[in-house]
Write a structure and sequence with these properties.
The structure holds two protein chains of two kinds.
Chain A: H1 2-8, E1 33-43, E2 49-59, E3 63-67, H2 74-81, E4 92-99, E5 102-103, H3 109-115, E6 116-119, H4 131-135, H5 137-141, H6 148-161, H7 165-168, H8 181-193, E7 199-203, H9 211-224, E8 229-233, H10 237-243, E9 246-251, E10 254-260, H11 261-266, H12 271-277
Parallel strand pairs in A: 3-8, 3-9, 6-7, 7-8
Antiparallel strand pairs in A: 1-2, 1-4, 4-5, 9-10
Helix pairs in contact in A: 6-8, 8-9
Chain B: H1 2-48, H2 54-58, H3 64-72, H4 82-112, H5 117-131, H6 134-146, H7 155-180, H8 183-190, H9 196-207, H10 209-224, H11 228-231, H12 251-260, H13 265-292
Helix pairs in contact in B: 1-13, 4-7, 4-10, 4-12, 5-7, 6-7, 7-10, 8-9, 10-13, 12-13
Classes of the chains: A alpha/beta, B mainly alpha.
The structure holds adenosine-5'-triphosphate (ATP) and magnesium ion.
């Protein structure tokens, strides 16, 4: 897998690079972004920033991949988009993130997270709940009352969207944890979709899965972008190349390069991007 | 070639023999450690079964004269331990009512703030509490409740003493259980916009329910047989008493009273048998719950 990608990434060796190009305001690169990250810096405490001065627009109904070596701040950036990084007590940030015209840091978390859903690296269905209750958990746990028929409808629609309905429709009231890893992850995506968010954030959603389950999820994401905007952190370059429309390359907390995936994989502008894509580090 | 395999064959046999001896020794020793329990049960059953009739559960403890007459006529002693059973239920129930919420909240706090300084202090204190001799807890119950609150010996004072006693087991089992729950579960709930207190109440605690309940039941079984703290607090009562501000009996207190009354000595066995079966039952149900309600994540 990796090697075919590397072949795609054959680089004209004579091309020269400016050292440390900082791309100012790549927001301009994206037409009518649904989400604008504006000069965002995030710290977990003190004056050390895990990501620094990141600016980027996220394109509507596209898949945007965030790549970069371990520890470069991918998860931090992703979590800052729905404020999950605030789980850690001493975080603070500079800059902002705008969903439409709203500053997400001025929304309350329920409002925000109904609009921006999240899926994690390890499938994490609620172990005490049935498949059905897992899908509807966002409503139940927040005390949002729905009629039985509304719930049924949401559950079926969400499970169909993640192509899990046919596999589980006869076992809706069994525990979600009895499913396979790939099924669990699709269940977790369904749980996020049930809220009908505008954006779905996924942090390495396939890194704990086998290749077959992975490719199912990839197919799914490509289908889902019709209705949702998807931001995906991935360690897997071939995955980014296969399914993403736009790619970010991060390095040491900085957004080094951001653009159309095709273009980044064929003619990266920054030397560090090229080195990463050709496997020189990371 | 042949010789060497023969030698190793012999060595092999030796090794197998050693293995066998070792395994059998283990089985024997394991068996041995189970013997006392069976001896105790046997002893109590033999001597106590005659007293175990309906009135044993529904009548109050006999007075010494009645008992003397019955023993002289070689009859079973009339009456039962209803005052002790009711007292134990009330005292232990009330102690649980105090200790369970406090213990679970405290354990949750410790699990959620594993690194915190204050949590470290609380954890240390809870550990120390576990080592406090039960008679000292009786003294505490006396000083805190008997004197200032109920103005005399009372079930309430006994409950307070016993609630302190069962607290550490609940706190630690809650903490240990919750620590095992992967943080990704909390993230899942938070990512749905669920406020923190609901994440704890509706996701984390239900996920840890089997471990927490096990700790609670073991805590109950630990205090159900306690005598010393009750001597200084509940004191004892010859009649069934449901008023928690009045002195109350309890099964272990009755055993002690029977021991002190030559005419009632025969009641010791049946009362002890009852207490032991109660506690064994609690322990077994703790095991069953740990297994049956285990949440797989
Ligand atoms: N809870 C935290 N407290 C303090 N520092 C943190 C915390 N989480 C992450 N960091 C630091 O922030 C930086 C970025 O971490 P982040 O998890 O965003 O990287 P990542 O790109 O997602 O890495 P990986 O590919 O390994 O998941 C790292 O230097 C990391 O040490
Ligand atoms: Mg990460």
């Amino acid at each position: 897998m990796e090697s075919t990608i590397l072949k795609q990434v054959q680089m004209p060796t004579e091309q020269k690079y400016k050292e440390n190009v900082v791309i100012k305001n790549p927001i301009e690169n994206i037409e009518s972004p649904v989400l604008k990250i504006d000069d965002l810096s995030v710290s977990y405490g003190g004056d050390k920033y895990a990501i620094q001065n990141v600016s980027a627009g996220i394109a509507k109904n596209k898949i945007t991949a965030i790549m970069g070596p371990s520890g470069c701040g991918k998860s931090t950036l992703l979590r800052a988009i729905n404020r999950m990084h605030e789980l850690y007590p001493n975080t603070h940030n500079k800059g902002g993130v705008y969903l439409g015209d709203e500053n997400i840091y001025e929304l309350n978390p329920i409002q925000l997270r109904r609009k921006i859903g999240m899926v994690f690296q390890r499938p994490n269905p609620f172990p005490t709940m049935s498949i059905y209750d897992n899908v509807i958990a966002g409503f139940n746990l927040n005390g949002i009352k729905l009629k039985r028929s509304e719930k049924d409808e949401i559950v079926e629609k969400s499970l169909r969207e993640v192509a899990l309905w046919d596999e589980v429709k006869d076992a809706l009231h069994n525990r979600g944890t009895f499913l396979s890893g790939g099924q669990q992850q699709r269940l977790c995506i369904a749980r996020a979709l049930a809220y009908t968010p505008d954006i779905i954030l996924l942090d390495e959603p396939t890194s704990a899965l086998d290749p077959i389950a992975t490719s199912k999820i990839e197919d799914l994401l490509v289908k889902l972008k019709k209705d949702f905007t998807i931001v995906l952190v991935t360690h897997n370059m071939s995955q980014a190349a296969r399914i993403s429309d736009y790619s970010m390359f991060m390095y040491l907390g900085e957004l080094v390069e951001y653009g159309k995936t095709k273009q980044m994989f064929t003619t990266p502008k920054d030397k560090r991007t090229e080195e990463y894509l050709t496997g020189k580090f990371g | 070639m042949n010789i060497s395999t023969e030698i190793s064959d012999r060595k092999m046999k030796q090794r197998l023999l050693k293995d066998k001896i070792f395994t059998n020794a283990m089985i024997f020793l394991a068996f041995l450690s189970g013997v006392p329990l069976f001896l105790i049960l046997y002893q109590l059953a033999i001597k106590g079964y005659r007293q175990l009739n309906i009135s044993f559960f529904f009548e109050e403890a006999p007075d010494t004269m009645e008992a003397m007459v019955a023993v002289a006529n070689n009859e079973i002693i009339p009456g039962g331990i209803a005052n002790g059973i009711v007292g134990t239920l009330i005292i232990v129930g009330l102690a649980s009512l105090i200790a369970i919420p406090v213990g679970i909240i405290c354990g949750t706090y410790l699990a959620e703030n594993a690194e915190g300084k204050f949590a470290g202090l609380v954890r240390f204190i809870v550990d120390m509490l576990q080592g406090v001799p039960s008679i000292v807890l009786g003294v505490i119950g006396y000083i805190w409740i008997v004197k200032p609150v109920t103005n005399g010996f009372s079930a309430l004072a006994g409950s307070v003493a016993l609630s302190i006693m069962m607290l550490p087991s609940i706190v630690r089992s809650t903490e240990e259980t919750l620590k095992m729950i992967p943080g990704t579960l909390k993230e899942a709930a938070l990512s749905l916009g669920v406020p923190y207190h609901k994440v704890i109440l509706k996701v984390i605690l239900p996920t840890g329910i089997s471990g927490i309940l096990t700790g609670v039941i073991l805590g109950i079984s630990r205090i159900a047989g306690e005598t010393a703290p009750l001597m200084l607090t509940a004191l004892g009562s010859t009649v069934v008493n449901t008023n928690i501000t009045e002195p109350s009996s309890a099964v272990p207190l009755l055993v002690w009273e029977f021991y002190n009354d030559p005419n009632l000595v025969n009641m010791i066995w049946s009362a002890s048998l009852f207490l032991l079966l109660l506690i064994l039952g609690l322990n077994l149900s703790a095991k069953a719950i740990a297994k049956k309600w285990k949440v797989q994540y």
